[in-house]
Specification:
Radius of gyration: 19 Å
Largest sheet: 4 strands, parallel
Strand order of the largest sheet: 2-1-3-4
Number of helices: 12
Oligomer: single chain
Order of helices and strands: EHEHHEHHEHEHEHEHHEHH
Helix content: 40-55%
Distance between the termini: 33 Å
Length: 277
Amino acid sequence: MIKGQRFLLIEGEGKAFAPLAVSSKRLLGSLGLEIIKSYETHSDGGYWGRVADLEGFLEIWALLFSKAQSLGATPLALEEDSYLNALYAFKILSENGSLCDKIAHKVTQRGGEFALCEPLYLPSMLFESGVMEGKIQSRFEEFRAAWIGSPRACELPSSAKGWMMGWKKLLGLGIVEGFFSFEGYAQMLSFDPKAALAQSARLYFEAVDLGIDFILTTSASQFGMMDAQKGAILKASKRDRLETPLLYPAQLLLMALGERERKHLGIDLHQIKVEMV
C-alpha cells in the first residue's frame, strides 16, 4: 500500500541521525508521500532497553504505535537500528498476551488509547512500492560502495532484505560486502570507548581499503561511530587521513532524483566531507 498512505517518522537522537532525518523528509516530500509527524525515541527504546528494562522499552514503542494509529498513520523507521527495535517490540506485544495487557494498561494510564501498528522500513518500503520507478534522473555506474549495516542485521525479516539488490540494479551502483558489514561496536562506547573506537576504525578502513568511493550505511549507530566520531576514529586508526564519506540510502536516493542542494541532502551536517555532489 502506498497511495494515500501517511507516515509517522521514527526519529533518533543526536548528530548521527540529523543528516538522515533531513534527507528522508526531503525524499518523501519529493515523492509526494505524506508525513504526519515525527516521533523521537530515546536510548531506553534501543537495544540497551531490551535488556535493562523490557517493560519500559515496550511502553516507549507502544506509545509510538498508539500515536500512529490515532493519527491514521504508519510508523516508518528510517534506518535499521530503529526498525529492528520497533519490530522487536511489535512482535512481543503481538505474541505475548499478558505482557501486552500490562503495557496497554500503562498506555491508558498515560491518557492514550492502546493500538498496534506494524512498522515499515524506509529503503524496503520505497523499493517494494515501486514509487521511484520512472523518476530516476542520475545513476551511479561510476561509483563503488561498501555496505555497513547494523550488527543485528541478521534479525531483519526477509521482506526487509531484498531492497539492496533492487537498488543496485535501479541505480547501477556497485556494492560490496564483507565481515565488516555485520559488525558494530557502538554499544561499547559507554564502558570501553577505547576499544569501541579502535574496532570501529578497523571496520571503516577494512571497507575503505577495498578502493570504494563511499560507505553506504543503513545504521545510525554505525554512522555515529564513523562520521560523528571522525577525529577519534582517525586517532585510533593511526592513519594520516580519513576522507571516504558515509551516506545513508535516503541521501543516495535523493541524489538519484536530481537533488544537489547540500542542505537538502543533509550532507552539510557530515564530519567527513562528501565530494560527489
